[in-house]
Amino acid sequence: MKNVSLLILLLACMEVSAQGVFTNQTNSAIEKVIQDYPNQFRNITGALLVEKQQTADYRSNIQIPGAISCQVIKYSSGNSALCWRAELIQTGNFDEARSLYKDIYNQVRNSIIKIEGEKPYILNGQYDIPDQRRRFQSVVFNMLPAVGELQKLKVELSLVQQSATWKVIIVVHDQDSKRHALADN
Fold first, then answer.
1. Three-state SS for 59?
2. Is the preceding omega at residue 120 within 30 degrees of 0, hence cis?
């Protein structure tokens, strides 16, 4: 009987610790962004911030707490690709950026995304330890199971060096907007 009680307690503790991944504010924001992807981010697009030759940047109505900026970016290329982009940190300290990059990865990995009328999805991506000698590194999270229009959707977490500054950026995009998403700003 003692062994059964111990096993039940152990399983309960494992369940509580696993739930932490699914209840954080980063995950909640990303889930809301993904839920609006089929609507081309219309419900989360706020005021126009800046219009450039090939893009229009809008304030996002969905924010990750503490982020420098959260935007919906619409590209005027042939198919009007778009993405949601959050810049989480700018720092000259690689170790600080690397630490946040890993923290965000841990918050996002294996997150369960629920979209009304569909079975839940899981965000799955492979982490590689960042190397200060590489100016760009990223984790691409895929939606599993990859079906329907959401199979093109990706969540990409990046650690980018621009001059002496390191940035941690998270982008929700489809394959059509990938080439634009990380190059902006």
1. strand
2. no
Which tokens go with 128? 């590689």
3-state secondary structure of 108: helix
With a pLDDT cut of 90, the percent of the chain lying above it is 59
Question: What token pair was written down for 89?
Answer: 């940190």
Cβ-based neighbours of 116, under 8 Å, separated by 6 or more: 35
Asked if pLDDT for residue 10 goes beyond 70, the answer is no
Band (pLDDT 50/70/90 cuts) for residue 148 is confident
Q: Residue 12 has which token pair?
A: 């309960």
Confidence of residue 26 (pLDDT cuts 50, 70, 90): confident
| Neighbour-count burial of 160, counting CB atoms closer than 10 A to its CB (0-12 exposed, 13-18 middle, 19+ buried) | buried
CA distance 126 to 137: 12
Report the phi/psi class of residue 82: left, alpha or beta, with left for phi > 0 and alpha for psi in -120 to 50.
beta
Q: If you count them, how many residues does the chain have?
A: 185
Q: Are 173 and 83 in contact (CB under 8 A)?
A: yes
